[in-house]
Amino acid sequence: MQGASRDALAQAWAFVEGELSGTQASGTDAAGVGEELFGVVAVIDAQAGLRRALSDPSTDGDRKAGLVEAVLGSHVSDVTLRIVTEVVRARWSRMRDLADSIETLAVLAMLIDADVHPGRGHPAGESDDVEDEMFRFGRIVEANAGLRSALADPALPDDSKVSLVSALVEDKARPVTLRLLTQVATRPRGRSPEDAISDYTGIASRRRARLVARVTTAVGLTDAEITRLQAALAGLYGHEVHLQIEVDADIVGGVVVHVGDEVLDGSVAGRLAEARRRVE
After folding, report:
1. Bigger pLDDT: 126 or 48?
2. CB-based contact 117:190 (threshold 8 Å)
3. Helix residue spans in 90-222 (DSSP H)
């Protein structure tokens, strides 16, 4: 996302944070808003004419807001209507960016719910756990071609995909995680399952305003080792770093860290490979 769309999303993001986690948001059903925003995305994706009208930069913002109120006004909450109205008033570089951004805001609403609204099956302050659970499920999908094919199969009914995800997650994930994973499975919007999950975990990371490091180790790390590694990476990058950790015995020992496109390979296997390259 570039230019005007990037700026528009940043403004919409701040608006949603204010609506759902600000002082005026007490009692607001953030998860319900997220559900409604996912529904709005489905409507926009299904109706090309509406999508063009709402993203047309030559159309006055008030006219687009009026169209949103006419189409959605009786079907969504006042909070959701305010959010969508705010979004369509903005200027978007590409037609698709509008729906993509509303999807981002839907995920954001779900994460806010995990943090600030306890009593719905999970305590507050758990968006970090939701992010980690999505990441782990994404790694399972990447490693299992059969599962990946099933989730990407347009002929497989949505109910079957939901059942598949639920069976794999069972009681190991929070309700918000399960809801986001079923959204990925049933409404991938042209992405592979693993790419859609990566997009959602990226939204969680952005909300924390931090870097995400994918850490591969030969054995599990202790809490003390995790703390030291986080501190070392924070010092290196000058920014808070969240770790997503997986264990892979093939690296023999040490750790491999991916931060964006940068790879810090401190594994035994990596050092041996580098030694072989120098000899050859």
Report:
1. 48
2. no
3. 95-116, 127-143, 145-152, 158-169, 175-186, 193-207
